[in-house]
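--- STAGE predict ---
source: upstream dedup step, 1 unique chain passed
mode: sequence only
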Amino acid sequence: MEKERRKYLLEGGDKEQYSHLVNNYDMDLPKQIDEDKPYHVVVSYHKMQDAYYFAKKKHEGQLRKDGRAYITHPIKVAELVRKYFSSVSHVDELVAAAYLHDTVEDTDTTIEEIQEKFGNYVAYLVKGVTNDNQMKHTMGKTNYLCNKMLHMDEDVLNLKLCDRLANVLDLREASPEFIEKYELETIVIINYLLMNAKLTDTQREIIKIIHEEINRLRKEEILKLIKMYS
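--- STAGE serialize ---
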């Protein structure tokens, strides 16, 4: 069923034929197309590069909480996707979606624009991680994300977990109030997934690293308080 759904999403004039995959710079692309996955669409290095520049332009002027350009976050998410899912035959589509994952939610980009420029499946992935602000407001952010992530398919959840890990790795630069809020939200979400979702080994590994990073941050905060009052 999963293969048929993905095949459907990738059909309709979206396939591009390449004689080979281009391996450039730090892009960890698969060496060949997996013949057992006829739905697989080759996304060239150049299309992933286009996704990066598209996201950079769309996020222009936006800043992270530490004052850095916002594009540094999609870059980190893409790096994590390449790190944990380089063996997946369609990692190229995941990387493209990683660069683009916040464009619909945080800029004037539409899903239709993503679909036209980067294909049906990349658009599907971006749509999958994009929050519905009205539902988030109605349900409360944490409850909304617990429910949304529980019902994500494997590829979308892979992308979302890399996004969450990237944010946790950047927490040191945020305010103490935001750190505490984001840590609590993250713990609730990942514990909910561990109890209710059927997770892959790699997804569990990412969740373990998120837990470890949060515990490390909390220890650092405790040490700061001890020094402050000693």
